Structure formats: C-alpha cells, structure tokens
C-alpha cells in the first residue's frame, strides 16, 4: 500500500463525506460548550475542498494537502479554520513534492500538523481541544512507524484520536470558546477533537 495522490484524494473525499454525515453531531457537540457552528464549518470547508480539487486536480499528496489548507483557511471561520489550515499546511510542507509518502515521512507530517496547531492555538494536552486528539494520534503513529506499514500507522492514529476525543469529556476547557464556561465545560466532548478523529479515520479508510 503506497500513500500516493490517489490515497490523498480518497482521504479528502472520505473526510468530506464524514463531515457531511456527522454535521449534526458536531453541531450538537458545539452547542453546550460553544456556538453550534463546528459541524457547519467543517462541512462547508471540506465541500469547498472537493470543489477546488475538481477545478484543478493536484498531482502529489503534498499539493493536495496544501490546497486543502488554503481552502480551509479561506472557507472555515472561527477557531477551527486557521487551526486546521495550519495543520494541513505544515503537513504539506513535510511531504514536499514527493509522489509517495513512506512511514517515516508520514510520522513527520502528522507531528508537523499537530505542532502547527499548538503553535497557532497555544493549547496544551488537557486543555480540552483538538490537541487532545492529535497528541495521542501522533504518538501512536510514531510508535507504529517502525514496522513501515503506513496503513497500520493510520489505523493506530485514528484509534488513538478517537480515544483522545473521548478523554476530553471530563476535562475543563482552558482554550477557545468553551473556556468561557469554566467548570460548566466539564462533562461535554470537545467537537474539534471529534472532527480530528473523523479526519484521521478517513485517512486510514483511504489506505484500505
Ligand atoms: P469557534 O470556537 O470559533 O466557534 P469551531 O466551533 O469551528 O470554532 O471550532 C471549535 C474547536 O476548535 C474546539 O472544539 C477546539 O477543538 C478547537 N479549538 C478552539 N480553540 C483552540 C486552541 N486555542 N487550540 C486548539 N484547538 C482549539
Ligand atoms: Mg463553534
């Protein structure tokens, strides 16, 4: 299994499908601890990505992720747009213009995406944000990188991101809109952590 442009395009198509399918769920998660727009933001953003890909098909995984970054930055408002935009841009830079992504490069790209989110949003693990899904995901990917199987790496990352999203339930938010609620943010799952898990699950699905 090679992570090539076909994989990247499948990944983005599966992500757009997932955001459409989970639109209401993400809206409902963002209702008690935010402003109910996360599902709308993510769905709109990834539908726009699909349109951009159709207009000018990218030829490498890096180019596909760069186009995704630019589109998310311009089409997704709020906190998530710039954060995911930065993540995809850093990942794109890590991939460069290679035609195929190997395990070591994949681990580096995921790490770069997560570090971009932290650089931009200044959240730490435990602050109840998407960082709580990304951090275990990159750790799981790095741990799995040794055997060189990119598909297994992506599955491990997706599993860890899903567990990371669940782990935000008892956390008190210290960053973003949810932090305004203080202790009342406890007992709710962070929507951005859930959308991160959906994105990484799609990446794994695209490698099946
Ligand atoms: P907004 O909060 O502006 O309405 P969204 O609802 O689209 O934007 O996205 C909210 C998500 O963004 C949160 O669930 C959280 O995961 C993430 N987020 C918010 N602020 C930060 C931050 N500083 N660092 C990392 N992630 C953040
Ligand atoms: Mg919101």
Write the layout of secondary structure elements.
Layout: H1 5-21, H2 23-33, H3 38-55, H4 61-75, H5 80-95, H6 103-121, H7 131-144, H8 150-167, H9 191-206
Describe the protein in words:
The radius of gyration is 16 Å and the shape is globular. It is mainly α. It contains 9 helices and no strands. Residues 30, 34-35, 37-38, 78, 177 line the site of magnesium ion (MG). Adenosine-5'-diphosphate binds at residues 30, 34-35, 37-38, 41, 78-80, 83, 117, 121-123, 129-131, 175-177, 190-193.
Number of separate strands? 0
- Class from helix and strand fractions: mainly alpha
**Averaged pLDDT, please?**
97
Provide the low-confidence segments as ranges. Answer: none
Shape category: globular
Could you say which small molecules are bound to this protein?
adenosine-5'-diphosphate, magnesium ion
Strand residue percentage? under 5%
Question: Counting H and I runs of at least 4 residues, what is the number of helices?
Answer: 9
Fraction of residues in H or I helices: 55-70%
What gyration radius follows from the Cα positions, in whole Å? 16 Å
Distance between the ends: 8 Å
Biggest sheet statistics = none
Order of helices and strands: HHHHHHHHH
Summarize the structure.
Helices cover 69% and strands 0% of the residues. The chain is an all-alpha fold and 208 residues long. The protein is globular.
Question: What structural keywords apply?
Answer:
208 residues; mainly alpha; 9 helices; 0% strand; globular; binds adenosine-5'-diphosphate; binds magnesium ion
């Amino acid at each position: 299994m090679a992570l090539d442009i076909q994989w990247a395009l499948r990944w983005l198509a599966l992500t757009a499908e997932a955001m459409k399918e989970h639109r209401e769920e993400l809206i409902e998660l963002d209702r008690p601890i935010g402003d109910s727009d996360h599902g709308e933001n993510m769905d709109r953003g990834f539908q726009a990505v699909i349109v951009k890909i159709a207009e000018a098909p990218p030829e490498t995984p890096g180019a596909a992720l760069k186009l995704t970054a630019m589109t998310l930055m311009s089409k997704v408002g709020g906190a998530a747009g710039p954060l995911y935009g930065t993540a995809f841009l850093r990942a794109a830079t890590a991939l460069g213009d290679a035609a195929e992504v190997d395990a070591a490069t994949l681990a580096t790209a995921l790490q770069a995406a997560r570090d971009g989110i932290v650089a931009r949003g200044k959240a730490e693990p435990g602050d109840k944000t998407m960082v709580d899904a990304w951090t275990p995901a990159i750790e799981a990917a790095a741990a799995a990188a040794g055997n060189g199987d990119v598909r297994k790496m992506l599955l491990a990352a997706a599993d860890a991101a899903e567990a990371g999203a669940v782990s935000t339930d008892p956390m008190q938010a210290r960053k973003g809109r949810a932090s305004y609620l203080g202790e009342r943010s406890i007992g709710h799952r962070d929507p951005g952590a859930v959308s991160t898990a959906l994105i990484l699950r799609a990446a794994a699905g695209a490698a099946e």
